[in-house]
Structure formats: structure tokens, C-alpha cells
Amino acid sequence: MRTPHALLATAAALAATVTAPAAQAAAAAPAPGAYYVQSATTGLNAADRSGAVEQRRPKGNEDRQQWTLRASGSSYVLESTDTAGSCLGRSGTQARTVGCASADALWEITPTDADRYTLKAPGTDRYLTVAAKPSGANYPDQLAVGSSGDLAAWYLTPVGAVTRPMPPADRRTLDQVTFLTAHNAYANGVDGGFAPPFVNLFPNQARGIERQLADGVRGFMLDIHQTPDGAILCHNSCTLVSKPVALWVDLQRMVDFLKAHPDQIATVFLEDYVDPGVLRAELARVNGLSDVLYRPDRTGVRQNGWPRTADMIAAGQRLLIFTDHSRAADESAGLTRDSFGVMYQREWTVENYWSMGSGASASDWSCYSRWYDAGTNIPLTRTEGAFRPLFVMNHFRDTTVTATATTDNTKLADRARRFCQPAARAKPTFLAVDRYDLGDTASAVSDLNSYVYP
Fold it and tell me: Domain named Ricin B lectin: which ranges (predicted)?
């Protein structure tokens, strides 16, 4: 008899053949229309900055990042949607905006695979490129005109992508579904203490874990800290926290819910400050965890893509657990978390930067990778063959203020569609919010679950 893991691996392979494009061969240049010119290396967009063309954080229809592609003879031009007659071009070794009638505005656009392109100056061997990264720094903002290579690979991401209807329940894959996710789900003031007294005045959520599950929350962000009692749920530290909740207690609530609702799927994200041995012992306290735990590392996901949710349900494997901890640190300690079913988040997901601003200030809707800095480069657009990471879309502030959270949550679907979806070239899998009970979070999830991003 095949094991559930083997069944899921087979199902994932079948799903890949159904959901993958019929032909992965490189296509011609895209049709005329409005696009973001997006670096395949950094995930950042080419933007007009007072004549300079720089890579900037994806920001929807703000920040002069949209370009209208059209043919010009045997070449193409990309005209700014903000300034008529101004096109993405070049001057010497730098990318600049120039008059659209100029020869320096012309580009030969050549596909390099199914969805990446090069932009080459006609009659030369010079390409639009990200400048080489200095040691210990980010890639420079100023875009360059230079040699070919990985830094000269670009996505032309449609501003208004044509979506497809969501497949029926028995055909949709995990990465096609969007799940409502509670940021700092444990910090609710209902289940127990979560922070020192003053911080307790600003809970991220207003309802306990069991109510969250009943309300349709299916993603749970939890901070765990190590104490003599094991892995405890606290914000920043457990010092001065009255009656904190142990991790195993909340996980048991989730496992019990999944056992009672065999058609549901849930995911846990751990902001993880405990030793791997402590976490393993904590998980061992959860009755029935192994029955529902889903292991993407054992089911061919990296080779075949994510499985159908129906196949996960049939196998009974419906709880994913991710950690933000470092694999390298665990390898040095001699025990990796994925050896007992906790996946390293950076290997399986992409995630936008978490803060939209302070609790009462103007919002920053730009959508860029949380893991893009001098030492790390995991763009939201990352793909690896058939494997596409799940996209965690963060939509919350430094501090939870009720009025601000209400306003932000009414704009959740709009930010997802116009800002974060094109930034990641994918629909969010997890919509992470504070105070999910405020605003229109459920309708945003419903909206996103009505279609599939191409």
C-alpha cells in the first residue's frame, strides 16, 4: 500500500501536468500594453527618477514605474505612462529617460525563457542591466547599460494581468488558494498574557485562537521564546508576562480543529527563538500532530509544484509549520528542524516587508521582499523550475491602532491586486493582518479566491 506521502507526491506530479502551461518554450515579445519592467534578480522595478532610471520598490501605479510597450519598426520603445513622449532609454553606460523618437529609446526585446527577456540596444552588445553589487551592499539603484548575464534578465509584468477563474475544488492547487492569516495570532489578550503590561494595551488580535479558527482564520503567526517550561508564546521576550501560553497548547487547538473539520487546511509561521531540541520536545506534546502534519519536503513539491488541496485533504495531511530560524545555525547545532517536520520558511515561501508604517502615520503600500538586503536576496518573484514559493503578503503596521487597522483592512484586496500581486507575479497565498475582525478581510479573501493569477 502506498503511504500518504507517496500519494501526495504522485498527486503533486499530476497537478503539475495540469496546471503548467502547455508549452514552456520562449515566446515572442509581449503584446503592446502597460508593463512593469522588473528585475529577475532583485524583483525591483525600473522607475523614472527625474530622468534617471532606477530600480525601486514595487509601488503599483505610484512612483513612475509603469511603461507602455509598443513596436517601433523592428524594435520596441517603453513610454512612461506618467510623461508622454518620455521613454526608457540610455545615455552612455546609464539607463535614462529620453525622447521616444530618439534612437537611444529603441530596444530589441528577446525572450530568454518562458517569461524573462533581455532588452538590448540595437546593433550593439549592450543590455539594460542591474549594476553589479558592491561587496557588503545592496545592488545600486541606478540601472546600467552593460553586458549580458543574469543581471540583464527582466520580467515584463502586465499592469493589468488577465486572470482565470478559480478551478473547481477538486482541481485547485495549494498555491492557487488564499488564506486569511492572523499576524501575532497569540497576542490576543483572550488566551493569556503575551507581553509586558504596557505592550498588552495594543493586542494584534481581539479574539482567541479557537474563535479565530471558527471565524475562518487559517494562517497563524506565532512568536516563540524559550523558558524552562519549553517554547512559550510571547512578544519580544517572556519577561514580566503574566500567564503566557505554551506553543503546544495553541497547536493542540489547531490539531483538534482539523480533526473535527477534515476538509480544512491550516498553516503556522513561527518567529522562532528556541533551540531545535526544545521545539521538537514541544511538538511531541501535541496529540495527533503527526496525523495531520504536511511535509512538502517528502511529497515532491520542489520537483512538481504544490499539490491539489483535495489530495492533501484525502491524505489527511493539512497542517504546515514554517520557521524563520536559520538552517545553517541548526546544522551547526546538529539538529535541523525539518528533520521533525518544521520547514524553513525561506526555502518554501516568499514574503514582503512587514511594516506599512507606524500605527497612525500615512501608509507605505510598496511591496518588496522582506529578504532583500546586503546579505540576502530572495525576490518576491523567485521561481525554481516547476517550484513556485507560497507568497506571504503582510498588511499591518508597527503598532496596532484600532482605527488604522480598520481603514487598512478595508483596502486589503485593493493593495493585493494593484501592488503586491504584480510585485510577486503571483497571488498572495496568505493575507496576514492585524485585527482580522475589522474591515473587509473576509471579502478580500473571497475576492482573491475567485480567480487564478496567470
Answer: 64-132
